[in-house]
């Protein structure tokens, strides 16, 4: 490997721009190429980072010289990019959600493991400094109740409102909160999601309430809505013996009184740890592809429960 770790990026939208900015700030990383099926988007992001642009991930991979690839495409577009990256024996960073279905993500996870390649997923909440503090505060006190929320506006991307493009709000957004719940509470055994009646054919549910039973015995609730004109409430509350914590992406509230602000470095750490893994260093990758697949399975179970109007057991 050259002294610079050469990263390719597939998909040149909002989140790719964020990763490209973070990666460009690392002295040992070079953005070696950016691909998007909309070539003009690849060109505009590539111009900012002084790298070549390509109209497909296949062209990016054919150009060669890469040490790792970020796949930052919308939910419906996952699959061939990841498998082609892996067929080049390259480490893979994938943005959540992993896919619309379970099979695509499972085949990618299997291939990553077959080739023993480093992987990471953009669950950057795992790197919040306040998450470490929450875990310390909960030491020896199992969580008995978890309340997750994602009450927000519709994100400004054209594909988001279509169920068959985004997978819906739980899979696309609340998956961050579900991932946090898995870290603080553990695995979920049963979910029952109830969507508010939908008005537009083919659109995502605009509001959903769900009950969850954790394998360790804790109870959970999840509420999502994209009916709002701005972000209202996004995060996770947990209750354990004698303590209540509320985590958002920016702060931890302890017992409704004490506020601990996050250090704001999670979105840098998620990239740094992956790059360290690519470089063969002892890296703290907190969400490998296999680990993210467990959260994805939970999100898909909730989506299925809402669609089928029935409880779903996670081992089904
Ligand atoms: N972890 C986070 O905090 C975070 C934040 C924002 C978005 N995301 C996730 O990142 C993904 C992308 O979101 P976004 O806001 O960047 O979307 P976007 O629409 O802004 O960008 C996606 C880009 O991918 C391109 N694309 C589509 N199919 C492609 C393909 N097969 N090959 C190459 N390029 C392709 C599109 O042309 C588009 O430019 C979503 O799944 C979203 O949930 C994660």
UniProtKB/TrEMBL annotation:
Residues 6-123 form the Gfo/Idh/MocA-like oxidoreductase N-terminal domain. The lineage of its organism: Bacteria, Bacillati, Actinomycetota, Actinomycetes, Streptosporangiales. Residues 147-240 form the GFO/IDH/MocA-like oxidoreductase domain. Pfam families: GFO_IDH_MocA, GFO_IDH_MocA_C3. It comes from the Bacteria. Gene3D superfamilies: Dihydrodipicolinate Reductase, domain 2 (3.30.360.10), NAD(P)-binding Rossmann-like Domain (3.40.50.720). This is Gfo/Idh/MocA family oxidoreductase. It comes from Actinomadura luzonensis. Signal peptide: none annotated. InterPro entries: Gfo/Idh/MocA-like_OxRdtase_N (IPR000683), Gfo/Idh/MocA_Oxidoreductase (IPR052515), GFO_IDH_MocA-like_dom (IPR055170), NAD(P)-bd_dom_sf (IPR036291).
